[in-house]
């Protein structure tokens, strides 16, 4: 079983390396195009997932900030730091929460920039390889060869 487990990571790393080296090469088979397209979609989905998670965390931090602002600065509060509940005062915690909000804003800005770059990369890929999104919104790409358009234009009875 250890030999199979050792072979699995090696196979996944070689496919990851292959996708990064495919950027400079023209993809020759339809399956390579579909695999590269699906890889770009997975990367795009991962970025969107990071954005959603960061927005949720930012929203929670904003709620805490809004709750602590009207309180007296010397009032005790508790903060979870690395899984440990620590007792502090509002005046100690509020600046840390504000700093965290600023960091979340920068993270969201960077992730949104990455997402727009990935969207542009995906659109360029789709144009280059004539990839059409499937009827379900993109989970099954339809790759059409340049001469295949004439075959598709025939009617149902042809």
Description:
This protein has 158 residues and is mainly alpha-helical. Helices cover 65% and strands 10% of the residues. It has helices at 2-21, 30-68, 90-128, 148-152; strands spanning 76-81, 84-89, 131-132, 142-143. Strand 1 and strand 2 form a beta hairpin. The radius of gyration is 25 Å and the shape is rod-shaped. Mean pLDDT is 81; it is low at 1-22 and 147-151.
Q: What key attributes describe this structure?
A:
mainly alpha; two-stranded antiparallel sheet; 4 helices; 4 strands; 10% strand
User: What profile does the largest beta sheet have?
Assistant: 2 strands, antiparallel
> Shape, please?
rod-shaped
Low-confidence stretches: 1-22, 147-151
SS strand fraction: 5-15%
Rounded mean pLDDT is 81
String of helices and strands? HHEEHEEH
How many strand elements? 4
Strand order of the largest sheet: 1-2
Radius of gyration: 25 Å
Q: How far do the termini sit from each other?
A: 54 Å
The secondary structure category is: mainly alpha
Helix content: 55-70%
Number of helices: 4
């Amino acid at each position: 079983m250890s030999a199979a487990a050792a072979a699995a990571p090696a196979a996944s790393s070689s496919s990851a390396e292959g996708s990064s080296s495919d950027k400079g090469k023209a993809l020759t088979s339809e399956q390579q195009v579909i695999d590269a397209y699906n890889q770009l979609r997975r990367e795009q989905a991962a970025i969107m997932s990071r954005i959603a998670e960061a927005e949720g965390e930012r929203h929670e931090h904003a709620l805490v900030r809004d709750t602590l602002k009207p309180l007296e600065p010397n009032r005790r509060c508790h903060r979870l730091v690395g899984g440990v509940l620590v007792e502090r005062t509002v005046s100690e915690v509020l600046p840390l929460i504000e700093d965290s909000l600023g960091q979340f804003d920068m993270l969201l800005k960077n992730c949104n920039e990455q997402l727009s770059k990935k969207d542009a990369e995906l659109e360029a890929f789709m144009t280059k390889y004539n990839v059409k999104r499937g009827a379900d919104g993109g989970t099954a790409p339809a790759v059409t060869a340049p001469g295949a358009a004439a075959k598709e234009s025939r009617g149902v009875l042809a």
